[in-house]
Specification:
- By secondary structure, this protein is α+β, with helices and mostly antiparallel strands.
- It has a single domain, classed as Chemotaxis protein chec (3-Layer(aba) Sandwich), CATH 3.40.1550.
- The protein contains 5 helices and 8 strands.
- The strands form 2 sheets. Strands 1-7-8-4-3-5 form a 6-stranded antiparallel beta sheet.
- The protein is globular, with a radius of gyration of 16 Å.
Length: 144
């Protein structure tokens, strides 16, 4: 399933986030919460994240310092968990701090995952992204 759309939600008092109902079945097999390269938290279906990390790390020399660092990057920044019976996921303090999320969360579809952004961070990024959209599509050979 490809994840599409943008949704606004709030964390509850226990830092749980309700996942939009239309995505819950795709996430029923477990999820990985991953500190993103951008100031967000990526939420992957477990099987997808495991396939991505396996593919990315496959063939690396396990004795190389770069391979060890990449393993740490993919595994130390990721937390595996499950949705609870109400379709919520608990967000950990480390990830919340990275994404600067307090209570207001924007959930965005990013194809193979959902991204969780602080509302103010998403608004700034979304505005910048919109201003660069034609350049981005042109770089793919698809003029806007």
């Amino acid at each position: 399933m490809a994840f599409h759309g943008t949704f606004e939600h709030s964390l509850d008092a226990k830092n749980r986030l309700t996942i939009p109902a239309k995505f819950r079945a795709a996430l029923a097999g477990g999820v990985f919460l991953v500190q993103g390269a951008d100031p967000c938290i990526a939420l992957y279906p477990a099987a997808t994240y495991e396939a991505i990390t396996e593919s990315a790390l496959q063939g690396l020399n396990p004795l190389s310092s770069r391979a060890r660092e990449l393993k740490r990057l993919f595994h130390a920044w990721a937390t595996d968990t499950e949705l609870d019976s109400a379709g919520r996921v608990m967000l950990v303090p480390r990830h919340l701090a990275h994404a600067e999320i307090d209570r207001e969360v924007v959930i965005t579809g990013a194809g193979d995952c959902l991204e969780l952004w602080a509302r103010s961070g998403w608004e700034a990024y979304d505005s910048d992204l919109a201003s660069r959209a034609s350049d981005l599509t042109e770089a793919l050979g698809h003029p806007a």
